Model the fold of this input.
Amino acid sequence: MTHQTHPFPSGTVLGYPRIGPRRELKKALEAFWAGRAEAAEVEATAADLRRRTRTRLAELGLATDLPAIPSAFSFYDQVLDAATVLGAVPDRFADLVDGSGALDLAGYSTVARGRGDDLPLEMTKWFDSNYHYLVPEIGPGTTFRFASDRPVREFAEGLADGVLTRPVLVGPVTFLALAKAAEGSPEGFAPIDRLADVLPVYAEVLRALRAAGATWVQLEEPALVSDSTGVPADRLLAAATEAYRVLATDLPAAERPSILVAAPYGDLRDALPVLAATDVEGLALDLVRGTVPTGSVAGLADKVVVGGVVDGHNIWRADLDAALGGLERLEGLGAHQVAVGTSTSLFHVPHDVEDEPQLDPTLRSWLAFADQKVREVVTLATGVTEGREAVHAELLAAADARRSRAEAPGVVRPEVRERLGGLDATAFRRGEFATRQAAQAERLGLPALPTTTIGSFPQTPEIRVARAAFGRGEISAEQYQDEMRAEVRRVVELQEQIGLDVLVHGEPERNDMVQYFAENLDGFSVTQNGWVQSYGSRCTRPSILWGDVSRPAPITVPWTTYAQSLTPKPVKGMLTGPVTILAWSFVRDDQPLADTANQVALALRDEIADLEAAGTAIVQVDEPALRELLPLRADAHAAYLDWSVASFRLSTSGVRPDTQIHTHLCYSEFGEIFGAIDGLDADVTSIEAARSKMEILGDIAAEGYPRGIGPGVWDIHSPRVPSEAEVTDLLASAVRVVDPTQLWVNPDCGLKTRRYEEVTPSLEHVLAATRTVRDSL
Ligand code: GLN
Ligand code: ZN
Done:
């Protein structure tokens, strides 16, 4: 079958960082939210960023007369953008939309951030990344209409600038698969039930884009590489068939742009033949996580296939030779055209390696941030169209970088390898829980329903000012230490006053729970400008884990022992676990993650041994990211949970029976990983169940889970101070469900983002409630 396919470039990227090289968008948005800037100023900053992005991508070699440059800007989140285009705004924000269903920037921000009692859209992780999207709320009565023409305007803006861009939208299947049923939806309703109602709006958007001159549009459908969206696989496949029948077959090719369906983050598997059988003109495959299909795929002969061989999700230079090999195999499938692409959007990586002058030049030579990745794409596209000889020098340079990386000092440290290789099963196992429990009870002598916190206390403006001054060299290390110790003293005194049973030092010295450890371990480097968007205006600066990991000196011991010297109550040591350190860093890709995790685990194990030797009786190892790295495909879960749980156990199993190990996990939907939590074998686990009213406790009791559990009685994610009565009710219901000897009382996460005005009264209410419930036992 032939129909009109518009010309497609030989190389492209699926997306590019949106926040700006100096986080310009963050600053503009935050000034707007604080009332310090007008919406028009934010719009101007955004337009400038979009223009600079187009210019930069063109400079790096992407075509401007063919749709190589994506038009993929967002003020906050691409899923919220799709909801806005479709007019799918929850009823509680109905007053914010204008007559045509559109939101202005203030209204859009309110949907993202909430106001008063109107909660914002829920936020959750985007596939297996550390980016958070906003969850649309779709009910049987949600009305859809083409409410915002922003994508059309942004396309037109590029065209006026002489650049034919490719608009990017979250596709209909993924949009609905990621949505949740709006409150009040009938039992059994799922947003994907509304597919037939959103498709006409998508069709209108496509028509409008074509009318504005767009030749290609990119519809993002990563839901099709995942088993984890909650929509059954057969339902997803049927939805894909239906969606692209309506958009590609029923909507004549002359009335719309050619459609590129992008499937980042994994392998399409069964969805590949399904998409190939539709009339869409192009498919973008993730060939970093996925593989080149073997055997023939019907329907590719008239399609453009974008081979996503350049990793959009990590920062290592590509193996160009291997990438070309993959592209050549892809050509063997007989597609109409093979183009070169990134595996995912580049918004998971920072802008430019050249922007890191302080990074060791050798390390820098191994890295590719977004701009370097664009050049890799361009090089590979030349290789595909003109043959390997045309890019001979680039292939050699890439091979040199890989060799340099393999041979550099610190990448392989024999002593680290030998130690790992010499471990046997006992290194991953503690003694019986019952024995530990008795020994710990005797050593700690805690009351029933022991009270504690998750670790951090508010990071006050004074702490941030001191850290910034230290960073600029304006105060000495000694002065900085003194200020942080003074903060530790205040935090300990406050906890004693409030009457907590297990104290913490409060983590004032940590900029970030991962970067702090990265700065203190060998094998890591940190960047200056390597910001990536985490959600909305929030960015993180992941560390780079490039070599074998070891611990040159104790890290937390002086802080914990100082805090312990101030109080007779036990002070809990506080560490970040191996899986979370990996999840929130850019991790070497030259060995299995399991090996890297175990190296980190050994460093932590030594830290825990030093804490124990210094008299610490309780150590908490946080694993908030344990669930985030869970593979998208169900058949990969078991292997992941095996190594991730093992690395946690390796870090914590060196201690005596009377040393109590805690862990903290930042979520409560644990059905799918309950076995893993059990497998961690921590003596006490705190979780984030305050918002869900501790529903999880029933499951825990039903499973016969024997160890300590702190479900969290105060939701710290909102500035609200819970009343004493409310906490009393929660605790009273908890002791009816689980054995009171298992129950710990704590807020549901760290307090670093809260203010003392909220923290002090909240903790006081928690303590008063605990006393009441204790008396009733
Ligand atoms: N100990 C950390 C804190 O209290 C844990 C934070 C987290 O789990 N995200 O800040
Ligand atoms: Zn947490």
About this structure: The first strand starts at residue 69 and ends at 71.
